[in-house]
Specification:
This protein is an alpha+beta fold. Helix content is 65%, strand content 14%. The mean pLDDT is 92.
Length: 86
């Protein structure tokens, strides 16, 4: 069971890093070498709204002790408002 737990943690980490790269950066380059696949972000293409929203969500969770559900709700409202206004 320990090996299965480690594999699940690895998959969750891989997915969270992949999603973070593709949400926070508009341009991400894939470099393929036979044993590795590496995703490199273009730091000039950072999405500032996504970065600020992620930082605000982190502050809500860690500093201000908002619950997870309330943080997701506030973040979804902020994302919806930015989509409708911009």
């Amino acid at each position: 069971l320990a090996a299965i737990t480690a594999a699940v943690v690895g998959v969750i980490l891989n997915l969270s890093l992949w999603f973070a790269l593709h949400v926070l950066f508009d341009k991400v380059t894939r470099i393929t070498s036979p044993p590795l696949d590496i995703w490199l972000p273009d730091f000039a293409s950072v999405n500032l709204f996504s970065l600020l929203l992620a930082a605000a969500a982190g502050l809500m969770l860690l500093k201000f002790d908002f619950g997870v559900v309330r943080t997701i709700f506030v973040s979804a409202l902020a994302g919806l408002a930015s989509t409708l206004l911009l």
